[in-house]
Amino acid sequence: MDDLVIARSLFGTTMGFHIIFATLGVGIPLMILAAELLYQKTKDEDYAVMGKRWTKAFAVLLGVGIPTGTIAGVQLSLLWPGFMEFVGRVMALPFQIEIYAFFVEALFMSIYVYAAHRLSPWMRIVSVTLVALGGLASAVLITNVHAWEGTPTGFRIVNGEIVDVDPWAAFFNPSFFATAGHVALTAYTTGAFVIASVAAFKMLRAEFGSRIYKFHRKALMLGLLLGGFFSFFSSINGHETAQQLHEYQPEKLAAAEGLFETQAYAPLAIGGFTDRETREVKYGIEIPWALSFLAGNSFDTVVKGLNDFPEEYWPPLFVHTLFNAMVGIGSLLILLALMALFWNKFLKKPEFPKWMLGLFVTAGPLAVLAIEFGWIFACTGRQPWTIYRVLSTADSVTSASNLTTLFVLFAAVYVVLGVAVVLVMLYYFKRHPVEEDLYRADEPGVPLY
Amino acid sequence: MSEQLIAVTILWGFVFIYAVMATMDFGAGFWSMIYLNKEQTKATNIANRYLSPTWEVTNTFIVAIVVAIYSFFPGAAFTLGTILLIPGSIILLLLAIRSGFMVFSHVADDYRVALTYISGITGLLIPGFLIAVLPISHGGFVELESAAPSLDLQALFTSPHVYSFIGFAISSTLFLSSLLLADYSKTAGEPNAYKVYRRDSIILGPISLVMAVLIMLTMRNEANWLYTNMMEQLPLLLLSVAFFVIGGLAIFVFKDRHGMKGVPRIAVIAVTIQYLLASYVYGRAHLPYFIYPSFTIEDGFTDSASFQAVFITYIVGFLILFPGFFYFWRIFMKDSHVREDTQTE
Ligand code: HDD
Ligand code: HEM
Ligand code: HEM
């Protein structure tokens, strides 16, 4: 295989693995914060127990999230030295500021976890807020680099030299806010639905009305409520992200939608496969005029098709499927939350039927899948560029060859860590069931921490 | 000071802080493995108590170093990235295993022994590979003239100079961490653990010094330019040795107020100053080269506008983070709290 392909696969695998832990690293602290606040407000010990158990899970996830993130950061310079040389000159700020976010997260995470027994409730809330802010800031800042790769600003190229560098103009590149907002909102969506999934799974196994059932029910409702809220705003803001593509990276949007002819009143193709030979989407459903409306808020918006671009600039066409899957999952998640709300608040039924709980169980894994699809779409859809129309992927890659061994080794380590983290998590929560924590919480004189 | 010099000083500062924190971190992990079966001394317990809250913070410094390199010296990014691909990847793989399994070992009690062994051993290998970056920068093992720079791995791993660096890294890791843990266990009021770590540090101190001398001897053959530059600062080197002696006396001979042998706090401070002086001498002698002889700090330097923006974020970031670090230190390192934790156990 060619070295460029292996480098791309290796980096893509690293990112695909890191993002699972990173997203949860942003999403779960917000859930912990919500539980801590609810506990202070309602004095219902169940929320304190939730906070404690989610923190434990989070601490274990950090054990993988931090080293894989470190790998991601270092691998960027090892595999894509050409790219990092460019970034160093123009776009170093977000990386630099991100370091401070990491420090904030690491310092207060340790304080929150290892000094729990020494903190006042107020200081606990401050600590976990700082952890959540640190995680959010790292996501927003790293996404900023990704946003800038799509809409590079803050420099000019004259005779192959980078001149007139303006680091803050690069920092506030046009797609920064929409993209960073999307990543933040979807991370919260994912954190909330993952919590809801686990709760629904436990409810399936608990007896209706039991102490355990009630405990998990509270967690489920919290997860669904926040998940529904954030997924709704994710989709509004995802729409804005797509409009950014329309404006700044039209061939990426065209590939995502499988559009070949430039046209006003463009139809939206849902599902199906893009066929390079016949230049059309096969087996898809077409909604007339919808794409033009989505791209520019009016039906007569002219949407550029792939035919306007030389074929070597086309992103891979399978991104259409990834994009559809992400949007599909996003819509489904909103529906799931609405369904729960309807059942619970309007029909006033206290018990969720098994089939519905079963659906809730799928929500968390689906959200994680949507994150994966979204990122693979965003990064692969930028091909053949690492910096849009400025630096090609082929010019970014290391000149070292024989990367296959490294690819195999890294993949093996991710498999080992992935399997181990699941086993450790199952082991721990089996050894320390909710009953134990509920007992500690209920019994006066026995500290929860 | 020129912008380049400011940048390289910041970078050197990060490397020094990381070197000290990482030796403590990897060393503590190793000791917690060695004393795993000796429950009564509490030595493992002490090591873990130090390690648990600090490893994330320590780890962040590696990232800070890497980011500082490519934001200040992007021109070096290409060369460094290419020649360090293999050693860098080995370090990353070890680091992933080490951090992951260390966290797992604190959670899965039944598998603690196996998990601690994996993280303890991988953790001790990391400093050895990390320090290999230094002899690589001395220039003998890299081919920079061709379009694709490359590293001669075979020459690297057959060079006595490289092995003296590796030996130094590993012995220093064990030395510094045992000294620190001696201090920590004394503060925590754990006399048994203290005795163990005091003994270890007394054995390892002289070994580290021998390794350091070995580095100088091999450097004379393999990187004579650096040796000459370092020898020009002989008084500072001797001062560094003097601090080593003070540290040694403090742990071996001095007695504290209660007549107990060893004043580890003084030893830790003296030995840290020793390393600070020695690495200052090394860093200064290395200038202006990033990679000898073809890559200087001028060559790879970033755009001035970027440097200034980044430099300002350093100052602002430091001001914001300082209270956080202070609070962290108060909670985990302050004597009264360390003691309090022993009582609540
Ligand atoms: C739970 C996850 C999730 C969900 C439900 C959605 N997205 Fe998304 N999407 C992401 C998770 C994600 C992501 C993984 O976070 C990406 C990858 C890169 C990025 O900026 O965010 C992304 C990227 C991304 C992009 C590409 C940005 C780029 O290339 O820079 C677009 C156009 C959309 N999304 C649009 C949407 C729309 C219209 C949605 C409607 C429901 C939607 N997303 C739901
Ligand atoms: C964390 C979620 C992410 C995932 C799952 C992901 C996935 C991928 C994949 C699959 C590739 C290979 C693309 C291909 O060659 O077809 C890739 C490449 C790349 N990504 Fe991402 N990515 C993520 C985040 C980011 C971010 C935040 C950045 C910005 C710093 C980034 C920068 C890059 C670069 C520079 C490349 C290499 C060059 C290229 O192929 O364009 N990625 N990523
Ligand atoms: C947009 C996708 C990403 C998100 C949301 C994200 C988020 C996070 C978060 C929250 C953490 C803290 C650890 C955790 O909770 O797991 C983390 C760790 C880390 N991430 Fe990512 N990250 C992303 C992509 C990247 C990329 C592309 C890089 C490489 C340039 C990277 C580099 C790192 C590093 C170096 C760490 C370790 C920090 C430490 O040592 O404390 N991340 N990431």
UniProtKB/TrEMBL annotation, chain A:
Natural source organism: Mangrovibacillus cuniculi
Keyword presence, Plastid: no
Instruction: Kindly list the organism's lineage.
Output: Bacteria, Bacillati, Bacillota, Bacilli, Bacillales
Instruction: Tell me the compartments it is located in.
Output: Cell membrane
Question: Which GO terms label this protein's molecular function in UniProt?
Answer: electron transfer activity; heme binding; metal ion binding; oxidoreductase activity, acting on diphenols and related substances as donors, oxygen as acceptor
Which keywords accompany this UniProt record?
Cell membrane, Electron transport, Heme, Iron, Membrane, Metal-binding, Transmembrane, Transmembrane helix, Transport
Q: Which InterPro entries match?
A: Cyt-d_ubiquinol_oxidase_su_1
Membrane topology note? Multi-pass membrane protein
The entry assigns this protein to a family as follows: Belongs to the cytochrome ubiquinol oxidase subunit 1 family.
Q: What is this protein called?
A: Cytochrome ubiquinol oxidase subunit I
Automatic annotation (TrEMBL), chain B:
**UniProt subcellular location:** Cell membrane
Principal place where this protein is found? Answer: membrane
Asked if the keyword Cell membrane belongs to this entry, the reply reads yes
Q: Which UniProt keywords apply?
A: Cell membrane, Membrane, Transmembrane, Transmembrane helix
Transmembrane residue ranges: 6-36, 57-73, 79-101, 113-136, 162-182, 202-219, 234-254, 266-285, 305-329
UniProt entry tagged with the keyword Cell membrane: yes
Query: Could you tell me which InterPro entries the record lists for this protein?
Result: Cyt-d_oxidase_su2
Cellular component terms per the entry's GO annotation: plasma membrane
- What membrane topology does this protein have? Multi-pass membrane protein
Q: Which residues form a coiled coil?
A: none
Q: Which family does it belong to?
A: Belongs to the cytochrome ubiquinol oxidase subunit 2 family.
Q: What is this protein called?
A: Cytochrome d ubiquinol oxidase subunit II
Q: What is the source species? A: Mangrovibacillus cuniculi
